[in-house]
Fold this sequence. Notes:
The structure holds two protein chains of two kinds.
Chain A: E1 28-29, E2 36-39, E3 53-54, E4 61-62, E5 67-70, E6 81-82, E7 87-96, E8 104-112, H1 131-140, H2 153-158, E9 166-171, H3 180-187, H4 189-203, E10 207-213, H5 217-226, E11 233-237, H6 246-254, E12 269-273, H7 274-285, E13 292-298, E14 306-311, H8 316-322, E15 330-335, E16 342-343, E17 357-362, H9 391-400, H10 403-408, H11 419-423, H12 430-477, H13 481-497
Parallel strand pairs in A: 1-14, 9-10, 9-12, 10-11, 13-17
Antiparallel strand pairs in A: 2-8, 3-5, 4-7, 5-6, 7-8, 13-14, 15-16, 15-17
Chain B: H1 2-44, H2 58-66, H3 78-89, E1 107-111, H4 121-125, E2 131-132, E3 140-141, E4 161-165
The structure holds iron/sulfur cluster (5 copies).
Amino acid sequence: MSIPTLTPFPGGLLLPAHKENATQSPIINAAMPQRLIFPLQYPAQQHHTVPAVPQVSVGDTVLKGQCIAQGDTPNTSCIPVHASTSGTVMAIEDHPVPHPDDTHTRCIIVEPDGQDKWITRKKADVTTLDNDVIFDRIAQAGIIGQGGAGFPCIDKLHSQDKAIHTLIINGAECEPYICCDDSLMRERADTIIEGTRILQQLLKPEHCYLAIEDNKPDAIAAVQKAAKDTAIDIIVVPTRYPIGGELQLIQTLTGQEVPSGNNPTDIGILCHNVGTVAAVYHAVALDEPSLSRIITLTGDSLDKQGNLEVLIGTPIDSLLDEMGVNRDTLSQVIMGGPLMGFAVHDLNSPVLKTTNCLIAATREALPPPKAEMPCIRCGRCEPVCPASLLPQQLYWYARDNDAKALTEYNLFDCIECGACAYVCPSHIPLVDYYRKSKHHLRQAADEKARADKAKQRFDAREKRLVEQAAARDARKQGGDKQSAIAAAIARAKAKDAK
Amino acid sequence: MTANILIAIFTFALLALLLGSALCFAAKRLKGDRNALVEQINAILPQTQCGQCDYAGCRPYAAAIAQGEAINKCPPGGEATIQALANLLEQEAVPLNTEHGTHEAPQVVIIREDDCIGCTLCIQACPVDAIVGTAKQMHTVITDACTGCKLCLPPCPVDCIDLTQRVAA
Ligand code: SF4
Ligand code: SF4
Ligand code: SF4
Ligand code: SF4
Ligand code: SF4
């Protein structure tokens, strides 16, 4: 046991938890929906993935766990898609997916047959498996970081040719309302610990911490019991938003700040959510891809609240119905928490591997955003920022579209935690501004890269055309080809410089 | 006496040599500066290479701008490019000259491969070598390299090249 001294991260907030309603009852399995929707491309905001290529056609029958879409070349950043139950492929078409911008993505739509019939699985004694096999099983399972940002698990693991000295398992679920990780830790601590041990076997870190906020005593007790006789240290961390943020948790446990523009793995630290390591256990030991997850269904518009084990691809609407949604009082459905989540535009959208919480909010509980008022330069946003940024400055630069200043003021270090907007007396949706600006800056960088490539190809073609013309001339005159080419290039250069 | 004349001749010769080389150097230097300016301008242009500016590509237009040509003739670049050029050249930004076309969302082309007769005309038209194929074989577009310049559309004898919106990577 080596308990680190905790270093507080800057900023942060104490928030009302709102978790009591959904933590009363144990996890239940959600009912089998009418249809399941599997996006081919992950509607992520933080990083690019390539759309997977369907491996099935309309009318095909599929089994639970069958890979129905994957990358056409290995090594593409492409997450394989699996059918989460057995049934028939009804369509491959554009379908709404949950995203702040109300986007549509190509999806495979499967109608369940009710049999829930599995593919053949090869259970394994993990301790006898090679690292390559473990990597492969994790890659094939399509596991995505379940904490929120949705980084493919395998990418995180592969990013370390550098050694990992500290493995951190994140059980600090800090945003109000969300309690799916809490319920997972209380009820399935063994799975989490087994999954963590697989990562330990793989990476051989010196330290392995599992961090839980001090407002979850039951989860702490359960995980401590399961982790007895292992080299995993359970660390109880103070409850303060956003301690569940990867960078904030790393800072709290190790005192280290991840330098701007770097990933934690660059400084030898790997951080995974408890749900992700549970999925790793299923993938490696049981040979089961990532097919379901636990989702908190809460909000005052629901008759019943609680944590459900939900098949990936289940339409949000059918979950709301199952929990007895009152459509008269329902004002909006938030995916994620009240600070970092977003309103779902189309309730036909499926739940994703990153969907941790659905809040069916009444008008009273989460009123529609108040009208934005001018910034009064009160400075309240600054001390709460966990990334030590200057939210007010960023806001002004975002309004001016000042790319240079936004970069200088480290816009890309913003973790979009929403603490600044939460305290802003002018109700300025600051994070919306930051998200848009980040999007613009990324787009500009993409355009620049494309233009550079086009320029190269254009120049290469010009050069080739000159050479070909020269070779033709040379042939005509029966002269020496090489010197004619050289002469033509010289002529072209002279023309250019003129 | 002769010595004086010799000294004078020598002095002037030396002077001529010095001034001459200075001039020569200045000329080279200025040309260097101008080339650098052309490069700076070219770096701002979108490299669609579509020729809508009435030049044979972005670089020729950049060279013309360096000589004083108007900065508002590039539709793919649109207002953002005009603004960036205006900043670089310390000029007023002016609205896009729509005689050259209007600014559109980024596009790429795809070849309906079943209809293609393999005539290779589109390959010859493409300014960035974004089309692959050989005579009498099906042709296809490297979408990632296509700038959406549309230059391959008119030559195609069977109209089997379609324009589509470019989707984000
Ligand atoms: S809290 Fe809001 S009003 Fe106050 S300085 Fe920040 S952005 Fe402006
Ligand atoms: S949203 Fe960004 S700027 Fe605002 S407090 Fe969080 S990290 Fe700081
Ligand atoms: S109009 Fe076309 S060729 Fe001319 S500068 Fe713009 S992109 Fe380049
Ligand atoms: S494929 Fe056609 S539209 Fe695309 S760059 Fe080449 S010529 Fe232009
Ligand atoms: S011009 Fe049209 S028909 Fe000819 S090769 Fe190109 S796409 Fe095929």
